[in-house]
Specification:
196 residues; alpha+beta; Transferase(Phosphotransferase), domain 1; 2 domains; 31% helix; disordered N terminus
């Protein structure tokens, strides 16, 4: 594997990228020091989780409402980054631009993405407004898989209370954990829409 290269998906899965994609179309998330060396610690653990989950859930191609994964970045043989489609809007900017006219449709699309993730044996574990991006045509894209884990795995460092403090949620990676977070997101979107 060449240094400073965009590598194929993790070698055990066999999908290859032969050249670095254009930065304008893609988003590169890296975990390196300013000097370009791999950064150790929790950042690399999150990156490893993200790439592992994305490798598994994208085995069959693009999934509905999930950001498209293109490969990982390797420096000196160590995975230090991930390459995904660049998505136009954060959820707050999409709300400001009124790109989401139908909240129920939008939430249903996110739910389809979550269900697809679950069907591949993973839970996202961090469904929230910061981890939902929105395309120019108002399509949601679930992103940031740094907390994703296989279903049933224990979550030692995760809160048992959702973002609104309203529900006790599982300390294990479960579909109900993601669905509880999705309900909180839906409540937020409905409240935001009512204030407009």
């Amino acid at each position: 594997m060449a240094d400073n290269s965009l590598q194929p998906r993790v070698a055990t899965f066999g999908h290859y990228i032969t050249e670095r994609p254009s930065p304008g179309r893609f988003h590169f998330k890296t975990c390196v020091t300013p000097e370009g060396r791999p950064r150790g610690g929790p950042e690399n653990l999150g990156m490893y989780r993200e790439i592992t989950a994305l490798e598994m859930i994208h085995r069959q191609g693009p999934l509905p409402s999930v950001s498209q994964y293109h490969g990982c970045i390797i420096i000196n043989g160590e995975i230090v980054g991930v390459c995904k489609d660049r998505i136009a809007h954060t959820l707050p900017s999409a709300l400001e631009s009124q790109l989401i006219p139908d909240i129920n449709w939008f939430i249903q699309q996110v739910r389809h993405g979550i269900d697809a993730i679950h069907s591949f044996g993973f839970a996202h574990n961090a469904i929230c407004g910061e981890n939902i991006m929105v395309t120019e045509n108002g399509q949601p894209r679930i992103t940031n898989f740094t907390s994703a884990l296989p279903l049933g795995q224990y979550l030692p460092n995760f809160s048992q209370v959702d973002s609104h403090g309203a529900h006790r949620i599982s300390r294990y990676a479960t579909p109900s954990r993601d669905h509880c977070a999705l309900q909180a997101l839906q409540d937020y979107l409905i409240e935001h829409q009512a204030r407009r």
